[in-house]
Amino acid sequence: MSRFNLKCPDKVNFPLTLFNKIDIFQVNMVTEEIKKRAKQLRKQIEYHNYRYYILDKPEITDAEYDKLFDELVELEKRFPELVTLDSPTQRVGAPPLEKFGTVRHALPMLSLNKATTAEEFNDFHRRVSELLANKGGEINYTVEPKFDGLAVELIYKNGLFVTGSTRGDGITGEDVTVNLRTINSIPLRLNNAPVLLEVRGEVIMFKSQFNKLNENRLRAGEEPFANPRNAAAGSVRQLDSKITASRPLQFFAYGIGTISGMSFNSHFETMMYLKQIGFIVNEHISKLDNIKEVKRYYTRILELRDSLDYDIDGIVIKVDNYHQQHIIGELSRSPRWAIAWKFPPQQVTTVIEDIKVQVGRTGILTPVAHLKPIRVGGVTVSRASLHNEDELKRKDIKIGDMVIIQRAGDVIPEVVKVIKSKRNGTEKSFSMPSACPVCGSKTIRIEGEVAVRCINPYCRAQLVERIFHYASKPAMDIEGLGYKTVEMLVEKGFINDIADLYKIPEHKEEILKMERTGEKWFSNLVRALENSKHPQLENLIYALGIRNVGEHLASVIAKRFGSIDNLKKQSKEQLTRVNEIGPVVAESIIAFFKDKRNIKILNKLMEYGVTFPTSEIATGTGKLSGKNFVLTGTLKGYTRQQATKEIEKYGGRVTSSVSKNTDYVIAGSDPGSKYDKALELGVNILSEEEFKNLLSD
C-alpha cells in the first residue's frame, strides 16, 4: 500500500461484474481494456492509500478497499506482464537476499552536532550570527522533533522510487530498496516530480504498534524487542523483505539530498513541497523568527514528549535559508548551520515495591529495586539495579519509597534519588543478607571491596550466570541459549557445569518437553554447540569466566601467552609484567587454575571435543604499537569487537574514553559525545575508510 497521489483519480466504480462481460480470465491476451482496468485500479488504490496513511481520512471501508486490491492481485496474477514496479501489490516483499549491497550517497548524509543545554544552543546561535554578520540578513530557523529511528535515503528518478539505502557511515549506506518498498508510507511513484529527487528521512515504529508487535511475539514464544528504535532498525535490515513487510513501519521525511529540475530557497519550503507530493512530514515542524521562539518550542515539545505516539530525544534546529546555509558551511562530518538540542534523560517517579538480591556468575550479590512498572524513555521499566550496599546506603533507599527513575544515557534504568518528602512512615529499611538467597550459603564482604559475595561455587544462581556467560556472543557464541532456557536446563539437572552443555544432545527427549523448545530450535542448538567447539583463544579465555578478566583483557592475555597451557604456568610476577594486568587480575588467574574443580571442567571440555587453540604470541612491535584508539558510532565493515581485534593485532590499544593520551578516534555513523570530545581536544579523527587505509599502509 502507498500514500502519494494528491489528486483523486476519476471516481468511477468498476464492479467485478465487468469481468463477466469481457470474460478476461478465459483469455490469454492482454487487451487494451484489461490494461486500462489495471491502470485504473492502481490509481484508485493509490488514492485511497493516500487518504488512509497520509491524511488519516479514509473514504471507503476496509472491505471495499480489499475488493479493489484483490481484483488487482487477480489481474496481475493472470497477466504478469501487467505488474509494474510501482504497483501497490509489490509491497509484500521479495525473495530473501544473501547480503545487502552498498549505495554511495551523492551528497554525504552528515550527522548533527549536539547541544544539551540552553547555553550550548546560545553558543550555536552566536557562531551562526558571527558567520552571517553583514552577509545574510535576519536568521530564521526551521525546527522539528528529533526522531529516534533509522535514517534512510530514497532516490526517485522520473517520479519512480528506484533505490533506498541506510545512512551507513554518511558516505556509503546499505542497499535496502526491497525492504523500503514494503513500507506503506513510502510512495512508489510521485506525480509531477523532478527528474531526480533524493528524499531523506527516518523510519520509525509508533509506540502503540510496537506494543502490539511485542504482544504478538510473546504469544508466539519469541523474544520481544527492547524498544521501537531497535524494532524499526532491525526490521529494515532484514535479508528477508517479507519480514519487513509484516512489521508496522512508518517513514517521515526530514530533508532532501540531490534534486534536479527544481530548486527551493529554504528548508521549510522544501518540506512543504515534500508534504505536497505525498510524504509524511512531522506535524510539529515550524519556521521560527528568533531564538526566543526556538526556546519556547523546545519547552513545548519536551512537555509533549510523553503524549506522542513515537519516540523523540530532542529537537532539530536548522538555519532555514539555503543561501545562509551555504555561507555558514560545513565541517567534515556535520553542518555548521544545524544542531540537535537533546532532551535531558527522561525522568519519571514511581514506587520501590521491593528490593531483591540477584546473584552473579562470580557470586556477587547485587540489590535490585523492583518498581511499580512505568514507561521511561520509550521502555516500560519494572527493575533498576541499586549496584551495591554502599550505593544503597548513600542514597538512603527504602522499600516503599517514592523515587525518581531515569534511563542513564537513555538506556540503563537507574534510581536517581528518593523523594523523602513523600515518606509516610511505612517504608522499610533493607540490609544485604548474611546468606545467599538462592543456595543459603554464607556471604562475605572482603575488606576493601564494595561487593558482597556468595562463597558457594555450586550455587545454582552462579551456575546459570556462568553458563549464560559461556554461551554469549563475545564468548563461545552459542545461539539458542536464552537466559530462561539456561535456567530451565539447570533446574532440570541437565547441566551442572559449562562442560555439560555438550551433553545436551543426550537429553533430547526430555528437553523437547520443556517450554519454548521445538525440533527446529533443538537442531539449531546442537549445530551451534558443535560450531562452538573450535573457538578463538581469546573467546575461550573470556568464556571461562575468570574473575576480573573481561573481553578486552582476554584478548590481551591470548596475544601475550598464546595458549591455555602456557597461561597456567605463569607466576604472579610474570603475569604483572604484561601491560594492563595488575596484581588483582594476576591473583584471579592463578586462583582459577589452582582450583581443582576448574581443572576438572577444562578436562571435560577437551573430552567433549572442545579444542584449546594456540595463537601467535605478540611481540608488541606492530605498526600501531603504543597508539591509543577510541571507537565511536557504528562502523559499517566491522563490529566493535572486530575493529578492536584489528587494532590489537598491530600492537594498538583500544580504550573507552577520549583523553589527551588518545592518538586516534575512529568515528562511524552517528558518533556520540566521544566525537565531540575529540574535536575539543584536537585528537585525530579517522573515518572508517581512513581507518582501513591505516591498517593496510
CATH superfamily of the largest domain: DNA ligase/mRNA capping enzyme
Identify low-pLDDT runs: 1-27
The count of strands amounts to: 22
Q: What fraction, in percent, of the residue positions are helical?
A: 25-40%
| Number of continuous helical runs | 25
Class by alpha and beta content: alpha+beta
**Shape from CA axes?**
globular
Q: Rg to the nearest angstrom?
A: 30 Å
Whole-number total of structural domains? 6
Which sheet architecture does the biggest sheet show? 7 strands, antiparallel
Main CATH class of the largest domain: Alpha Beta
The end-to-end span amounts to 50 Å
Question: How big a fraction of the residues is strand?
Answer: 15-25%
Q: What's the multimeric state?
A: single chain
Mean pLDDT: 86
CATH topology of the largest domain: D-amino Acid Aminotransferase, Chain A, domain 1
CATH architectural label of the largest domain: 2-Layer Sandwich
